[in-house]
Amino acid sequence: MMPQLRPRLPGDRFGPLTDVNPGERPLTDREKITQLEQENVDLMLALTQVYEELLASKTGGAA
Predict the structure, then answer these.
(1) Cα–Cα distance between 23 and 48 in angstroms, integer?
(2) In this structure, are residues 19 and 2 in contact, taking their beta carbons and an 8 Å threshold?
(3) Could you tell me which of 45, 53, 44 has the C-alpha nearest to residue 63?
(4) d(CA 7, CA 52)
(5) DSSP calls for 1-63
(6) Secondary structure (DSSP) of 15-30
(7) What span, in angstroms and rounded, lies between the C-alpha atoms of 15 and 6?
(8) Are 26 and 1 in contact, with CB atoms under 8 Å apart?
(9) Are 4 and 19 in contact (CB under 8 A)?
(10) Assessment of whether the complete model's pTM goes beyond 0.85
(11) Are 24 and 37 within 8 A, CB to CB?
(12) How far is CA 27 from CA 1, 3, 21, 43, 59, in A?
């Protein structure tokens, strides 16, 4: 399901729900899983880099 919003109308009223990104199809479950897996890999790589920098700063050498 695509995100929707209600546009504000004059007189502090709201209009009907409309798609936020019309023309875009929602991601399939497989595409969502692929996207989450890639984000997970990116986060793990970033965490590894931070951990290596922490070790290097504690030991005074390059990791």
Answers:
(1) 39
(2) yes
(3) 53
(4) 48
(5) ---EE--EETTTEE---EESSTTPPPPPHHHHHHHHHHHHHHHHHHHHHHHHHHHHHHHTS--
(6) ---EESSTTPPPPPHH
(7) 5
(8) yes
(9) yes
(10) no
(11) no
(12) 9, 12, 12, 21, 46
57 token code pair = 């700063």
How does pLDDT run across 1-47, given as a tens digit for each residue?
677 888 888 888 999 988 888 777 878 999 999 999 999 999 999 99
* Residue 52: how many other CB atoms lie within 10 Å: 12
Match 């502090």 to its residue by tokens: 12
Q: Which residues sit opposite 14 in a β-bridge?
A: 8
